[in-house]
Amino acid sequence: MKAVLAQLGPAVGKKAENLEKMEKVLSQAEADLALFGELYLSGYMARDRIPRLAEPIDGPSVRAVQAMAAEHGTHIVFGMPEKAAKGRTLWNTSVLVAPDGRTWAYRKIHLANFGPFEENVWFGRGSDLVLADTKVGKIGLLICYDLFFPELSKALALQGAEVLAAISAGPHTSRRFFDAILPARAIENTVYVLYANLVGTELNQVFSGGTQAWGPRGEDLGRAKDHREHALAVDVDLRALDAAREFRPTIRDTRPEFFDAIRRLSEGGRGK
User: Fold this and answer.
1) Is 7 helix (H, G, I), strand (E, B) or coil?
2) Beta-carbon count within 10 A of 155 CB
3) Does a structural domain hold residue 81?
4) What is the longest distance spanned by two Cα atoms in the chain?
5) β-pairing verdict for 163-168 and 137-143
């Protein structure tokens, strides 16, 4: 499988322009899978424009991406502000669109709400992991801050994920953390980790990029150039997973009972 990780700087508030840029990348990529960044459709720092820019999953922007996926034969992952079909709830969502029109939507579970981040102001918290069973493999969807919680990646791997597709709006100040945890998520779960970050400046946020890909044994598959738009092409060979998991059987040796311990602690069961 050929994957292209598009490290782009979206125009804040200009959905049509961002979709045009997506189309340009796809027309040149000839890829089986393409990733675009967190909230790519609207731009990350859209802030009080988010309610106006948000759309339901069956809205016009997703339909436009479905048409692109069909035309280019590419599975497309991109970020957008999602609006509930009923009610006023908004989500920070990663959408995967297959060439046959099938669509999966993952709503970000761990919203960043510290320092310069204010995602809790605009978005509701997601509650469900999403594993997309596609013709190019089983793809688990994650968004940025989710990567700092290894139980999410582990849970997706235990469900059968072969690839973790993580889209991000990680600023330059967080770069060293992502450089550290991305290979860890790949090694500890023996999966491919594909990470597409934004680049450029939006208001007071500087996105330096850091788009990268890792193999199931910690192989560095490539990195995009810093501080510039770049479409990183990488090869993903799912046949390598069996050998990786025989070499270091972390999935086989995972003990699910400790997930229950995490749950009890989160419910206030510490010390019981």
Assistant:
1) strand
2) 18
3) yes
4) 58
5) parallel
What residue ranges of the chain have pLDDT lower than 70?
269-272
- How far, in Å, CA of 250 to CA of 197, rounded? 27
CATH of the domain at 31: 3.60.110.10
Q: What is the DSSP letter of 47?
A: G
The domain tally of the chain equals 1
Q: What confidence score (pLDDT) does residue 174 get?
A: 93
**How is residue 124 written in tokens?**
């509701």
Alpha carbon distance 199, 207 (integer Å):
5
- Phi-psi region at 171: left, alpha or beta (left = phi > 0; alpha = psi -120 to 50): beta
Whether 44 maps to a domain, the answer reads yes
* Per-residue model confidence (pLDDT) at position 110: 97
Residues 249, 241: contact at Cβ < 8 Å? no
Q: What confidence score (pLDDT) does residue 258 get?
A: 85
What's the CA gap between 260 and 27, in Å, rounded?
A: 46
Residues of the domain holding 179: 2-266
